[in-house]
Design brief:
This protein has 272 residues and is of the alpha/beta class. Helix content is 40%, strand content 25%. The strands form 3 sheets. A 6-stranded mixed β-sheet has the order 5-4-3-6-7-10, sandwiched between helices. It is elongated.
């Protein structure tokens, strides 16, 4: 998937910023006179120019939500496993582009930090942590994860926040992080978080708080209200992300994610 679809897209969209000094060489007819290194020219007695190359190296940070609600899924796979697969795809795309990759796993605290590095063995470590790490807590604190990112990473990064975004009061921290980094929000959703099936009376437990509730799903009014509340919440989240200029990719457990990722890359390419 990386080789056939996303490697080229990733390479064309995520480019290094600015130019990096490479060498000084003798002036040749046709060179831009603005590139002349006057200090070297004065020492050598004839003109030399500074040669630059495009700075391509980037740092990719993956902020992975492993709160209790990620251990849920009714179609194909759990949200946690889908999130880990997205981490793998992005990490391998980055390493093929010779970029550094780092990982922050969070719940309502910072669970694990893997500093950004290059290399296949490093990427395999990130994939292993994304797949098999067992979180200590169940809550969600996106603000804490973003503040930690700003503390430990000083250079600008491309930061993917992979979460179901069942959290509160993260707008300010997300806006602040997006000014220092290029933040992309990847929301992961299961269809049962939007529509309840008609299966009679069920007992539901909140995966993060442990709170339980009994619902009669045969009630059309209840299912309709559940759907309306879910759509309202998702629309409010999209509006929030647009208001602070954070790009958003909406991934579902029941729909192949390659289409949404490809749409995102095409959108970024057109913007560039």
């Amino acid at each position: 998937m990386v080789t056939d679809v996303f490697a080229g897209q990733y390479h064309s969209v995520f480019k290094g910023r600015g130019m990096e000094f490479e060498e000084v060489r003798e002036y040749q007819p046709g060179d831009d006179i603005r590139s002349i290194d006057w200090n070297v020219t004065a020492r050598m007695g004839h003109p030399f120019i500074k040669k630059f190359m495009e700075e391509r190296e980037l740092t990719i940070m993956l902020l992975l939500d492993m709160s209790g609600s990620s251990f849920f899924g009714t179609v194909n796979k759990l949200k946690r496993h889908l999130s880990a697969e997205l981490c793998s795809l992005l990490a391998i795309s980055a390493v093929k582009n010779n970029d550094k990759v780092g990982l922050i796993i969070f719940s309502d605290k910072i669970e694990k930090f893997v500093p950004p590095m290059k290399g296949l063995s490093h990427v395999l470590r990130i994939i292993r942590e994304a797949l098999y790490y067992e979180p200590e807590e169940k809550g969600t604190n996106i603000t804490a994860a973003l503040e930690y990112l700003n503390r430990v990473i000083t250079r600008r990064t491309i930061s993917f926040v992979i979460s179901d975004f069942y959290a509160k009061d993260y707008k300010m921290s997300l806006s602040t992080a997006n000014k220092r980094h290029d933040v992309v929000a990847i929301s992961v959703t299961d269809p049962r978080e939007i529509d309840l099936p008609d299966v009679g009376i069920v007992s539901l437990e909140d995966a993060e708080t442990g709170e339980t509730v009994m619902l009669d799903t045969s009630s059309f009014a209840l299912r309709n209200e559940y759907h309306a509340n879910a759509i309202k919440m998702f629309e409010e989240r999209k509006k929030l992300l647009r208001s602070i200029n954070v790009d958003h990719i909406d991934i579902r457990t029941d729909v192949p994610y390659d289409r949404e990722l490809y749409r995102f890359f095409r959108m970024r390419e057109r913007r560039i």
